[in-house]
User: Which sequence fits this backbone?
């Protein structure tokens, strides 16, 4: 057996362990009784430690070295697989054991305190623990950076979005920052001129919302034999290979959050379900990174399903399901409700136009925090100044401000930009798909996602991690990641 | 760190892996989409292989040797824990790797073929694969027997019920065999004299059955913060430490199967929930074996919950829940329905009086099969002769005969006797509990299981694997395992 084949066996084992953790994590969020929390943490930690041991075992490193010497004899997919194995190995071995432990502990402690601090809108209560997290994450960034030849922030970013670099993001985000304030003012004027949107009044029974959600999952192409929908407080897409679990939460006063949430998570799920089958247990089959993953949720939620043609298809469905009629339930009014723009404090509730402002704020701050140009004590002031500057809002308290997101408190620095990078990629991919498949938009208007899914399967899903994000986008759309198409999309939809 | 403490860490890891498998197994039976089957098998196999590697690692053996040399300095529970570790290690290391693999493969292949063969009532279709299973299980019995100093059948039995031996079972089962035919004839005469039982006519809506089941789970003491009920085709008690998952299936034409099934699985669950907390991640905290486990399900299902006092408590509950009244719904008629005796072909549908006959048949056959005194080709004839002799029935086909149970086809030899040994132990424990807690029966009649559960917690659950089955029973009841109390119980309930 060659070194490469032995590595495949080793990584198949890691894949199975990752899948097991995925199901246990899903269960924890959807099903598990509360009293099992401690034991579940123990189970997940054991699987994580075993995976880490397998990945960082001296033998893994030796096999990688040997396989790389013979890489010229491998076929393209094997070479890409070997590259991804090396990447996983480099990230895992970059950190000494005590830093891995410190990272896990600091994140858990701060995240726990954050839940209470957010409820109390008391930033000072969590600040000391967040400072500990920041110290550890800076050290992680430095250790990984030294191993990978990257700056600390780039090293953290690379953990979420392989190959993505601050130097690539900065000019794209600068373009956005230059355009957004003016665009937002224009959109708000335009909305004011169009008059108010009629309210879609509830209640909307949960079981009907569920039925519509499941129907739409089928419409977009979710394979129910290899996945399922469930309920959780915080919606997510998780589970395992060939077993993709998506969740949503229901609000009987508002059906559109759950409905668009289901479409968003279905986009993630379709990416997972479309991974290259020949490589399913190998790193090269995995989604390319968080930018591409977010592009797949947003291409469904934002690009396809907030389009006029799709909402024209959706309107009679929801009218019939909820037994409603009248002007508020006309497609054009639903479209206006679904694309209503209004600056607000909370990122996850933000519309498509103001969402990037939330990311620009966080990205600017987290790069400064990791670089040592900002400290935890500076966060509330910088946050509130940024919200004033970007969206014209005065943040009334930390719950609606710098305490709203879990990310930093759990130790995630370098994740935030992928939300907006994903939105850009979604716009690029959707424009390319429409150009390549002229009937795509009309099909979507009839609830037929076959042309769209076929294009995504060919150009995105089936690629796994064969290419870098920029290579993938260049092959699929003719250009690397860029904000041009995204900005054009916003102008067309909101000022068109 | 001493060798013993290092072993505790090692076995805590095994416990977490076992828990992870428990949740994945539960998910497979209750929740998983069908298309995930292959990957789930991969996940479970990976966890099993990793556990086996940890348990059989040379270092584990070395640590055991070192710890045993210093065992005199350990406290009682630690000594028992070390003994259980050694036992697990001995079972795991007894088999060479190729036999482990052959066992797993033969069992899986035969089990798969069995599903179709049973549906077709075609024993010949599965016989060649069952022969392969038998060859492998004989080899397993011999290998384990050589390592443990036991006969092949005892070595297999010991895997399910530590310390149980054929020489202990034979005389107890001989007593049963001597008594049962006469007892059965008497019971049938007695029933005939009492006249027919009035039918409890359905339909019984599933949601009402569920609500009653959950209420009764609470009544018997199931801790819903550390476990949950669900639905599966084959009811079981599984899950993980502090997360005990029981399942049932519902038949709208008959509510008593699900109801008694819930009480049966709750008995298993209460044993798991009552494991000694100081040792939760260690082998010594585990249930003593299948005989004791079955005793805990049967002490609830059969001893407590088919008693007249409990049914008097239950009758108004079900009348109200299903909106029924009339003579069929009087407590005495429900009692007669719940204790109706009738020889039948299917073990899992059997009543308390005829159930042991099904076990005597299987036990006699499987001991002969493992000893080489019977071959697969002899199974249908021996089965049908046995059913005629024991229950006076002519088996019409193999689906209602030797193809009904999964056990042998999946490679389980040595499991069957624990069902009836458990029934004996349940009778002994219940009699001792009633004697020790004079108010116990009256409390049960009021839906108060506190005295019974308190007694079981003290005398059974909290013991984990500290004692052998006989030691545990002797301490709890004054006598080792025996059929005397069980036979007396049958006479009292069915001829009383």
Assistant:
């Amino acid at each position: 057996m060659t070194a490469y084949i032995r590595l495949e066996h080793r990584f198949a084992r890691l894949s199975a362990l990752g899948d097991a953790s995925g199901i246990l994590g899903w269960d924890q969020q959807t099903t598990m009784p509360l009293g099992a929390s401690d034991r579940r943490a123990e189970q997940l930690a054991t699987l994580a430690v075993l995976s880490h041991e397998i990945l960082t075992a001296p033998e893994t490193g030796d096999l990688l070295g040997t396989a790389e010497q013979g890489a010229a004899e491998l076929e393209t997919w094997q070479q890409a697989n070997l590259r991804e194995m090396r990447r996983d190995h480099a990230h895992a071995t970059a950190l000494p054991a005590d830093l891995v432990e410190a990272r896990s502990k600091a994140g858990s402690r701060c995240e726990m305190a954050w839940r209470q601090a957010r409820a109390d809108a008391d930033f000072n209560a969590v600040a000391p623990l967040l400072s500990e997290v920041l110290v550890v994450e800076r050290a992680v960034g430095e250790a990984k950076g030294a191993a990978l030849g990257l700056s600390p922030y780039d090293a953290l970013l690379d953990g979420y979005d392989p190959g993505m670099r601050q130097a690539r993001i900065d000019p794209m985000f600068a373009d956005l920052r230059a355009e957004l304030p003016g665009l937002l003012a224009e959109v708000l004027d335009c909305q004011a001129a169009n008059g108010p949107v009629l309210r879609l009044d509830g209640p909307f029974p949960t079981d009907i919302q569920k039925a519509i959600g499941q129907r739409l999952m089928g419409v977009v192409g979710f394979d129910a034999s290899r996945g399922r929908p469930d309920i959780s407080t915080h919606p997510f897409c998780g589970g395992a290979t060939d077993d993709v679990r998506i969740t949503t939460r229901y609000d009987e006063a508002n059906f559109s959050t759950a409905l668009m949430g289901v479409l968003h998570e279905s986009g993630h799920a379709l990416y997972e379900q479309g991974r290259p089958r020949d490589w399913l247990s190998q790193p090269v089959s995995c989604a390319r990174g968080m930018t591409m993953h977010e592009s797949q949720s947003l291409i469904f939620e934002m690009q396809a399903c907030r389009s006029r043609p799709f909402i024209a298809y959706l309107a009679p469905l929801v009218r019939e399901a909820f037994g409603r009629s009248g002007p508020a339930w006309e497609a054009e009014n639903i479209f206006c409700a679904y694309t209503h723009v209004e600056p607000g404090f909370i990122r996850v509730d933000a519309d498509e136009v103001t969402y990037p402002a939330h990311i620009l704020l966080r990205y600017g701050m987290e790069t400064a925090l990791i670089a040592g140009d900002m400290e935890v004590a500076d966060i509330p002031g910088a946050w509130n100044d940024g919200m004033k500057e970007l969206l014209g809002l005065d943040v009334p308290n930390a719950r609606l401000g710098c305490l709203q997101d879990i990310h930093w408190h759990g130790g995630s620095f370098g994740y935030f930009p992928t939300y907006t990078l994903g939105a850009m990629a979604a716009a690029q991919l959707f424009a390319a798909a429409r150009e390549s498949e002229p009937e795509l938009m009309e099909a979507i208007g009839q609830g037929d996602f076959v042309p769209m899914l076929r294009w995504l399967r060919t150009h995105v899903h089936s690629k796994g991690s064969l290419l870098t994000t920029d290579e993938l986008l260049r092959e699929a759309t003719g250009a690397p990641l860029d904000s041009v198409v995204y900005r054009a999309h916003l102008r067309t939809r909101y000022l068109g």
The radius of gyration of chain B is 23 Å. Chain B touches chain A at residues 12-13, 16-17, 19-20, 23-24, 27, 31-36, 38-40, 42-43, 45-47, 50, 223-228, 240-243, 280-281 (CB under 8 Å). The longest strand of chain B covers residues 243-248. Residues 256 and 338 of chain B are 8 Å apart (CA to CA).
